[in-house]
Amino acid sequence: MRKKLMVEKIEKRNERLWLISNDSPFSLEHAKPKNHMLVDSDNIAFIYILETEEDFIYVTIPYEHWTDMKQVLTESIPVFLQSGMAELELTNFKEELAYLIENIDGNANYGEQMEQAVKEIFLT
């Protein structure tokens, strides 16, 4: 089964980048990072995948937060998810994001809007 969690804001605190989702309808107690990201071209978003024994949890990072997320590529700071009281490091985030950005640039398979959004934020 697949569950979804939407990032509502991003903050930099204590040399970490925090992806914050305040209203999780489920527990992240047993969630572990899968070290993998996907692209949601329809909604212009990146998705970091968490997993539990029964589920995958898609942490969606919409376009409106990409400018804040860009610093991960230049500053090499760790990325954490905060949802309610749960805090979890999103390992391999920088590498996955860099790979996707490189792959999307000039690739029509992701759709014109997604390619343009990536260029606008990450490749200027």
What does it look like?
The protein has one domain (2-122). Helices cover 26% and strands 39% of the residues. It has 4 helices and 8 strands. Strands 1-6-5-4 form a 4-stranded mixed β-sheet, with helices on one face. The protein starts with a strand and ends with a helix. The mean pLDDT is 95.
Q: How would you describe this structure in keywords?
A:
124 residues, alpha/beta, four-stranded mixed β-sheet, 8 strands, globular, UPF0738 protein BCV53_07455, UPF0738
Short description:
With 124 residues, this protein is of the alpha/beta class. It is built from 4 helices and 8 strands.
Topology record:
Blueprint: E1 2-6, E2 9-13, E3 16-21, E4 32-40, E5 45-51, E6 56-62, H1 66-69, H2 71-75, E7 79-83, E8 86-89, H3 93-104, H4 112-122
